Amino acid sequence: MPEMSHYYAIKNEYQFINQDSSNVQVSTVQWDVKDGPRFDIGYIDGEGRKCPCPVIIHASSFGSIERALCAILENIAIDEQNGAPPTFPFWLSPTQIRIIPVADRYLPASLKLCDRISQQCLRVDIDDREATVGKKIRNGETEWVPFLLVVGEKEENSNRLTVRSRDKRQEDMTIAEFIEMARQKQGNKPFRPLTLSRYLTKRPSFR
């Protein structure tokens, strides 16, 4: 900087652009040459003498969780503005896959499918609430669940699934093909298991 208007002489900053075209700082690294003497910050050398810190490096390479989430949500808003359905990145979605049994008698088949998918380090739950299939699908869409799997007689008696994705496309594929697709979407991103019960009836209800 040509003039010392702040406590730092060098600043490296990353920003993202909001949906309204304003900007927010995500991370920064600052070369601080003022605060050592100002606040009497120093270190003890090998001979036991206190020496002032000539430089303090402020390293906020990640920023904060709030700013990172803000960046993600603002980019989702931009995607929606451009016509894409709002959705979290697959690896970050709280529920990545939701299984929707068409009736209670298909709960065992749904649980078996849930176990198989969960073993592949994917977050999957089961909507076992008393509601119509249409309402369960709408709820899944409202919660931005990337993939919805409806389980009925056809799915129970075959190795195939009708997969409804976030953009409302429907594809018919085998269970193995679906798991492979989901694993590719997860990639090498961090994974954490579900923090709540896999059964929606056993989760707290917030109104």
Give structural notes.
It is a single chain. The radius of gyration is 25 Å and the shape is elongated. 29% of the residues lie in helices and 27% in strands. The strands form 3 sheets. Strands 7-6-8-9-10 form a 5-stranded mixed β-sheet, with helices on both faces. A 3-stranded antiparallel β-sheet has the order 1-2-5. A two-stranded antiparallel sheet has the order 3-4. The chain is α+β, with helices and mostly antiparallel strands. It has helices at residues 35-38, 65-81, 107-118, 133-142, 153-156, 175-186, and strands spanning 8-17, 23-32, 42-44, 50-52, 56-60, 97-101, 124-126, 147-151, 160-165, 170-174. The protein has 2 domains: 8-81, no CATH class; 90-201, 3-Layer(aba) Sandwich (Rossmann fold). It has 6 helices and 10 strands. The mean pLDDT is 91.
Please describe the topology of this protein.
Elements: E1 8-17, E2 23-32, H1 35-38, E3 42-44, E4 50-52, E5 56-60, H2 65-81, E6 97-101, H3 107-118, E7 124-126, H4 133-142, E8 147-151, H5 153-156, E9 160-165, E10 170-174, H6 175-186
Parallel strand pairs: 6-7, 6-8
Antiparallel strand pairs: 1-2, 2-5, 3-4, 8-9, 9-10
